[in-house]
């Protein structure tokens, strides 16, 4: 009994759109009859063509799925064909076909822990977060290109290393606030509310430490301290020590204005997206209290799992060891609303 060689290849074409209640489980397509399966078994390579209902936030789209399945035995092809028909129609394995897919986005700012947070989410069997897709400028040139990119992600047509074979019950990506979010917030909020996209805000209270991380990361883009390669995130203490060996010098003249601007951007974003379904997280809280990750899983309506990451924090210890002109910065912030940032651990 040689194992079934079963490798499907499919293409989708949208046929029609009809309203449907949101989050209703997708209906199972009609199984192939015995006669149809027998016909499939006559050739080693056989064409499957099925019409698939797929749900996206209350709208049912009908897709025509066409592809080839390779098999060797008629006894085993039946289950494989049925399972893959469900997989093709719903973007899920057969046992997952009744699960609605949650759509989410991580809204954050560079050097606020979003990369680490995303690796934590992707360690969950049912989450696929596809990285910083709007880092490519062409995808955010205008509202039209933004919507086109969002449609690709949320229609399950975006495949990255985060894409899973398991039941992907939550699909999303991370989006930096300076990548078109603020400029086109009205249209994006409208899209999120229409499609049922949940927003996860990940912010950083200590904007001074964020500034240190940004300056160090910017320096390494050119210095390439780790074996001639630029790395924004590391996975070993040795690499972290190498990157943290650089101590940036901060402009003390514009420092307070720069810190205020970072805070104002976050405040504006929260105001712009207040009408969406959202949750607000802070990097410092995640470091101190990992039970917050349970809140995130509840927010996405997913089963609880222990989330893990192999990333290693780069800048540890007091800021006095990380800023070249420490005394100047300390004098600048003393007596201001930002003085507490000087001694904060995170």
UniProtKB/TrEMBL annotation:
The organism of origin for this protein: Escallonia rubra
Name of protein: Sulfotransferase
InterPro entries per record: Nod_factor_sulfotransferase, P-loop_NTPase
């Amino acid at each position: 009994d040689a194992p079934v060689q079963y490798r499907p290849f499919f293409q989708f074409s949208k046929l029609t759109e009809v309203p449907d209640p949101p989050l209703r489980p997708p209906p199972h397509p009609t199984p192939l009859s015995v006669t149809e399966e027998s016909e499939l078994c006559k050739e080693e390579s056989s064409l499957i063509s099925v019409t698939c209902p797929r749900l996206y936030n209350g709208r049912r789209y009908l897709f025509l799925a066409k592809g080839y399945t390779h098999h060797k035995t008629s006894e085993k092809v039946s289950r494989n064909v049925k399972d893959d028909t469900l997989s093709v129609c719903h973007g899920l394995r057969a046992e997952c076909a009744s699960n609605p897919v949650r759509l989410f986005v991580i809204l954050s700012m560079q050097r606020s822990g979003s990369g680490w947070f995303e690796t934590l989410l992707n360690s969950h069997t049912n989450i696929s977060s596809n990285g910083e897709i709007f880092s490519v400028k062409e995808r955010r040139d205008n509202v039209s290109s933004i919507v086109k990119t969002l449609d690709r992600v949320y229609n399950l047509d975006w495949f990255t290393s985060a894409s899973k074979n398991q039941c992907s019950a939550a699909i999303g990506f991370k989006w930096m606030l300076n990548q078109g979010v603020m400029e086109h917030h009205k249209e994006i909020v409208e899209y999120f509310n229409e499609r049922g996209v949940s927003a996860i805000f990940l912010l950083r209270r200590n904007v001074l430490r964020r500034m240190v991380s940004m300056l160090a990361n910017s320096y390494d883009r050119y210095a390439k301290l780790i074996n001639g390669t630029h790395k924004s995130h590391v996975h070993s203490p040795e690499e972290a020590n190498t990157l943290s060996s650089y101590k940036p010098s901060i402009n003390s003249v514009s420092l307070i204005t720069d810190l205020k601007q970072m805070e104002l951007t976050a405040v504006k974003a929260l105001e712009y997206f207040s009408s969406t379904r959202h949750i607000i997280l802070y990097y410092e809280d995640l470091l101190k209290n990992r039970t917050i990750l349970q809140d995130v899983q509840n927010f996405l309506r997913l089963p609880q799992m222990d989330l893990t990451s192999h990333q290693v924090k780069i800048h540890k210890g007091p800021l006095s060891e990380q800023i070249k002109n420490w005394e100047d910065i300390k004098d600048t912030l003393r007596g201001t609303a930002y003085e507490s940032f000087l001694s904060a651990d995170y």
